[in-house]
Amino acid sequence: MIDGEKLVGIISDGDLRRLLEKRGKDVLDLTAEQAMTKNPRTISTAEFAATALALMEEKKITSLMVVNEAGKLEGIVHLHDLWGTEMM
Fold first, then answer.
1. 37, 57, 64, 70: most buried by Cβ count inside 10 Å?
2. How far is the C-alpha of 81 from the C-alpha of 88, rounded, in Å?
């Protein structure tokens, strides 16, 4: 979710799985804002791909939101994006 140009939350597949386990079909009554993870893990546009990979491994996540210095969402890097590189 974006507020103005600033990233304020995301809904990941893990978020949905956890919500379904906890609330069952009632999850369908939630708004995106209620279901999202506020303040998701991010990485700066200035960071190296190796840093993104290390952070994903450390936090056991598959995606990172890429933001600029102002917190504006610039993109998403996914673990699968890095698999094709020589880092893995």
1. 64
2. 11
Contact 51, 62 (CB under 8 A): no
Q: How far is CA 87 from the centre of its chain?
A: 21
pTM metric for this prediction: 0.77
CA distances from 50 to 47, 56, 67, 80 (A): 8, 10, 16, 13
Residue 81, classified by CB atoms within 10 Å of its CB into exposed (0-12), middle (13-18) or buried (19+), is: middle
Write the pLDDT tens digit of every residue in 2-37: 888 888 899 988 889 999 999 998 888 999 999 999
Mean local confidence (pLDDT), 49-59: 93
What tokens appear for 22 in the block?
Answer: 């906890």
The CA distance from 83 to 17, in Å, is: 24
